[in-house]
Design goal:
heterodimer; A: 441 residues; Rossmann fold; 2 domains; 20% strand; B: two-stranded antiparallel ribbon; 15 helices; 1% strand
Chain lengths: 441, 367
């Protein structure tokens, strides 16, 4: 297996040095937590608490809303202050519960009790993973139990644990690998057992030599496990690109990694799933990298789900200088926040705060057809033509030019000298194409 | 902030560029007092950029052309400087006026008008009268560029449209008043370009009669010959091209395919019939091939964007150039070749659409 490379890609400034040597610190409970009910991709979870309810840490406050859905748990013990619509970190207002911690941080009965995973069958493990609200923590928040349930007949032979962390600035996965290697591998072993594969690869970009070293030591005694040092190129951590770089297998357009026999899980997901099974510990906290030139003390914070961004920033010593942009996630794919009112969800990998001079104010221009976007696009699309179609509302043409295969990595916009809002165009076109497809059946 | 985004729908506007600097505080319940705390810039991802701008690209091309332009002043004297200045100034004036009239933001900053004026000047003889230069720039900037929608929307290379309009309308001024390199001091002598001498000899003598020894090759390489301002100094043009490839402004594909196709095609004819077909190296280093292949055919707007398409485009330019040089009415065919290939650009792009990563092979699937 070679650590090859994929087509296209870019080399942005990684700026990981701001936080990559800061050990994960646990943040004290804030005064208030805002826990969103919809924390996974798929069906939103249904709230089962009301205003005034007392809840314990780990108690279900929203139940799964379908198969592709997971429950949401109270991140600490306390009182449900109110239930309402709050600004969510993905830019829309969404229903959430406001929880005032009682300070005791008491576990709900049965939670966080060590048990043996021996004797559990595959179905039981998946059930535990579901019941503990485990979702993809790389940012996509796709329910993990669904990914672990391939349709009958799909033969899998490789599990990839994604520690590429190719987004600039973010170091949460990096720190997890350095500090929790065994926990990640335990989770990985569990995944491997569930889907019945014997080969597990931990894929890490070469810019994290300490993580590679720690993981290499940790896999030493484990049968079938190996660590691959991957080239430093964005988007190395994108599923399809990572699989190709590792195996030369191409996930078919419109298909899933399982179509080429591979399952990819983020390192944080593996850790959370492992703890869920071993300790019956629901996903109520995660590591969030709070970094950027606009923050006084960049940190990797173990924060409860529901921690408001304002509290994260305060914990990091506050804003520095003329902080002008606040991004939920990394600068390539993250969502810009208009305020610090949103809160940590299961998919919040970081909060990047940039200063005025790094926040370019620009006006987009006509495409000059320089073709830099075609060279950068890891999906081999023609972003230039696509953006021109979409400007003219020619969504069917955009569909014919494979806009649905766009992974929204942002490479095209990163290199565009005309500063065209490519990703914005493509998101819009995808929504329009889906609408068209629904109409025609 | 100026608002010249092409978006026609309201929902498209906020994300184009960076939207409102300070969005209004939002209504609705908030965990704390609404509307307090910092407010940030909101825009679509990605939030970082590699910093390259259109004007930077234009300036790099201008820098790459500068040595050849300065050298033209050295070999053709102050007349060359006159042509350069009138051309660049009139290009900028036409650009500003048409943008004003068409109510577009005046965008001289992007330097594209300067580049067009410079390129057109490089494609004119040093003897060009001022009005010829102005008319050429009018067609280049107003007709070929701004009437089509401005930078990015022109199907044909503006400078070449300007040149070809002049070539067809004022053939005497464009093709019959060549002077040799004067290098100040010495008097310029009226002469003909190497390509027209080749064509004339073929017409009058029935075979080609050109001197093409070591001395001639050296003269051709350093631009010691008659020709347009910018087409003569092959060495400096090639260096400019290498600079642009190094700076990743252009790829090697168009120049190499273009020049390669001319060399290969003329080479085949020369091999079989050297009496009627000149040495391929003669074809490569005479005429406007270098400036055309490096600086005109590589124009982003009017050439294909796909890798395969760019190769086809470059080769097509070469083939048409040779067809015109060998059998056309004009001694030189580079300009026409590029313009003809410009017309095929949308078609080439369409039929060389890159295969999306992981494209399902329909042939294999059917089998």
């Amino acid at each position: 297996m070679g650590s090859g490379r994929f087509f296209g890609g870019i080399h942005p400034s990684y700026n990981k040095g701001l936080a990559d040597s800061s050990a994960i610190v646990e943040m004290p409970l804030p005064e208030r937590l805002v826990v969103f009910f919809a924390q996974n991709l798929g069906a939103p979870s249904q709230p089962v608490v009301k205003k005034g309810d007392e809840v314990k840490k780990g108690q279900v406050i929203a139940e799964a809303g379908g198969f592709v859905s997971t429950p949401v748990h109270a991140p600490t013990s306390g009182t449900i202050d109110s239930i309402g619509i709050y600004p969510s970190p993905v830019g829309v207002d969404a229903p959430a519960a406001v929880l005032t911690p009682d300070g005791k941080d008491e576990w709900f009965e049965g939670c966080s009790v060590e048990r043996s995973s021996e004797g559990l069958d595959v179905g039981q493990i998946k059930e535990i993973i579901h019941d503990n609200g485990i979702v993809g923590m790389g940012g996509a928040t796709f329910p993990t139990h669904v990914k672990l349930s391939p349709p009958a007949g799909k033969k899998m032979d490789l599990l990839v644990i994604n520690g590429a962390e190719c987004e600039p600035y973010l170091t949460a996965d990096h720190r997890l690998m350095v500090e929790h290697a065994e926990g990640i591998l335990d989770g990985a072993a569990l995944f491997a057992a569930v889907i019945g594969v014997g080969r597990v690869v931990i894929a890490i970009e070469k810019n994290k030599p300490d993580a590679i070293e720690v993981m290499r030591k940790a896999v030493a005694g484990r049968q079938g496990f190996s660590v691959e040092a991957m080239g430093v190129i964005y988007p190395q951590g994108a599923e399809k690109q990572l699989i190709f770089a590792l195996t030369k297998r191409k996930v078919p357009a419109g298909g899933l990694p399982m179509d080429v026999g591979v399952l990819v899980h983020n390192v944080g997901t593996a850790l959370a799933a492992g703890e869920a099974v071993r300790y019956n510990r629901p996903l109520i906290q995660r590591v969030v990298t709070v970094t950027g030139s606009g923050i006084r003390e960049p940190k990797n914070i173990l924060a409860r789900v529901g921690t408001r961004f304002e509290d994260l920033v305060k914990f990091c010593g506050g804003l520095e200088g003329d902080a002008a942009k606040c991004i939920n996630g990394g600068p390539m794919m993250g969502v810009a926040q208009y305020s610090l009112d949103a809160a940590v969800t299961k998919g919040t990998s970081g909060l990047v705060i940039l200063r005025q001079e790094e926040v370019a104010q620009f006006v987009s221009d006509a495409c000059i057809r320089c073709a830099r976007c075609l060279e950068a696009c890891p999906m081999r699309l023609n972003p230039s033509a696509l953006s021109i179609f979409i400007e003219k509302m020619r969504f069917e043409d955009a569909n014919e030019y494979n806009v649905m295969d766009c992974i929204e990595c942002g490479c095209c916009a990163y290199v565009c000298p005309s500063r065209r809002p490519m990703v914005h165009h493509f998101r819009r076109a995808k929504a329009e194409v889906r609408k068209l497809q629904r109409k025609t059946g | 902030m100026e608002d010249n985004m092409e978006g026609k729908t309201p929902e498209e506007k906020p994300a184009a560029g960076v939207a409102a600097e300070k969005p209004a505080p939002r209504p609705g319940p908030m965990p704390k007092k609404a509307g307090v705390g910092p407010r940030f810039v909101v825009s679509s991802s990605p939030h970082v950029h590699d910093g390259r701008t259109v004007s930077q690209i234009m300036r790099l091309v201008i820098i790459a052309l500068a040595p050849a332009a300065l050298y033209s002043i050295y070999i053709f004297g102050l007349d060359a400087l006159r042509v350069l200045m009138i051309s660049i100034a009139s290009a900028m004036i036409f650009e500003a006026i048409s943008q004003k009239i068409m109510k577009r933001p005046v965008a001289l900053r992007d330097s594209s008008a300067v580049l067009t004026g410079l390129l057109l000047a490089m494609n004119l003889p040093s003897t060009s009268p001022w009005w010829l230069i102005v008319v050429g720039n009018f067609f280049a900037i107003v007709i070929a560029k701004q009437l089509y929608g401005g930078l990015g929307y022109n199907p044909f290379n503006p400078a070449l449209v300007g040149r070809v309009v002049l070539l067809i309308s004022f053939p005497v001024h464009m093709t019959a008043r060549w002077v040799t390199a004067s290098r100040f001091g010495t008097d310029a002598v009226t002469t003909a370009t190497p390509l027209s001498r080749m064509k004339d000899s073929l017409a009058t003598l029935g075979h080609i009669d050109i001197a093409f020894g070591r001395g001639e090759i050296f003269d051709l390489l350093i631009g010691n010959r008659a020709g347009c301002l910018g087409e003569t100094s092959i060495v400096l043009l090639a260096l400019g091209g290498l600079f642009l490839i190094w700076k990743r402004v252009i790829s090697w594909r168009i120049p190499v395919m273009f020049i390669g196709a001319v060399w290969a095609m003329t080479g085949i004819f020369h091999l079989f019939d050297p009496a009627h077909y000149a040495d391929p190296s003669f074809h490569v280093i005479t005429g406007g091939l270098f400036i055309g292949a490096i600086f005109m055919a590589t124009d982003y707007v009017t050439s294909p964007v796909t890798k395969k398409g760019i190769l086809i485009f470059g080769a097509g330019c070469g083939v048409i150039t040779v067809l015109i040089r060998l059998w056309g009415a004009y001694p030189e065919g580079v300009s026409f070749a590029i313009l003809l290939m410009n017309a095929t650009t949308p078609l080439i792009d369409r039929y060389t659409k890159p295969r999306v990563f992981g494209a399902v092979d329909t042939k294999k699937a059917a089998a």
